[in-house]
Write a structure and sequence with these properties.
Elements (H helix, E strand, L loop, with lengths): L7 H13 L5 H19 L5 E5 L3 H15 L4 E5 L8 H12 L3 E4 L3 H7 L5 E5 L11 H11 L4 E5 L21 E5 L12 H4 L1 E5 L5 H6 L9
Parallel strand pairs: 1-2, 1-4, 2-3, 4-5, 5-6, 6-7
Helix pairs in contact: 2-3, 3-4
């Protein structure tokens, strides 16, 4: 049995059911996702600094978790924050606060020059900017950050979905993060199967987030067969 790919709405529903019906706190799901993604990044990243670009939502929250665990494994890590950590909300703010208190290197990017400087001489760039809920063209710092990432020779890794790619249609924006690897959570996203997505997703790795098999079965997801 092959894992079923999820739509944007189904991704939200998995999270809702996990928290409301199974009493799994969102921050536990975020921690599980981050730990799983860390293992993949640790396996594929070349030598050199790992830069994680974190947006304002839960995708950025995943990035803060990953930064913490990569540092624990001995990696040299830098976070580029597209939003001031103190201005985040919910689980993302909690994990950003942990990163701050842990003394991780965090560059708050207020302009394109700050982004470019923070991306120099790095081995790996991790895209924690926008997740499956995002739609429409990129603007502002997100557009500038994606363009800066794509101009780098570093290995590029996307979390859940490359920023700029539409989860459902598989249509990339004019500027879309060009991933060598995409670490996606629970199951692939329906847009990944579209021809238009193939040039931006790279190698796809599916990472569980700790929801029960009983919940996965509601969405025809086979936990024993990740591809």
């Amino acid at each position: 049995m092959k894992r079923r790919a999820l739509t944007r709405a189904q991704v939200r529903e998995v999270d809702r059911i996990a928290t409301e019906q199974y009493a799994i706190p969102g921050i536990v799901l975020m921690e599980n996702a981050g730990i799983g993604a860390t293992a993949v990044i640790d396996a594929v990243a070349p030598s050199g600094k790992i830069v994680i670009v974190c947006g304002s939502g839960n995708n950025g929250g995943d990035g803060y978790v990953i930064a913490r665990h990569l540092e624990i494994l001995g990696h040299d890590v830098r976070i580029i924050a597209l939003t001031e950590p103190a201005n985040l909300k919910g689980d993302a703010k909690t994990n950003a606060t942990i990163a701050v208190k842990s003394g991780l290197e965090i560059v708050v990017a207020r302009d394109v020059e700050a982004i470019r400087n923070a991306l120099r001489n790095v081995g790996t760039i991790v895209d924690g900017m926008l997740g499956t809920g995002a739609a429409g063209p990129l603007r502002g710092l997100y557009l500038q950050a994606v363009d800066g990432c794509n101009a780098s020779d570093a290995l590029r890794v996307a979390l859940d979905i490359p920023t700029g790619l539409d989860c459902d249609s598989g249509e990339p924006s004019d500027s879309t993060f060009l991933a060598d690897h995409t670490i996606t959570f629970v199951a692939e996203k329906v847009g990944f199967a579209k021809e238009t997505a193939r040039s931006v997703i790279g190698q796809v790795h599916i990472v569980p987030i700790g929801v029960p098999n009983q919940l996965l079965s509601q969405f025809d997801i086979d936990p024993a067969n990740p591809s």
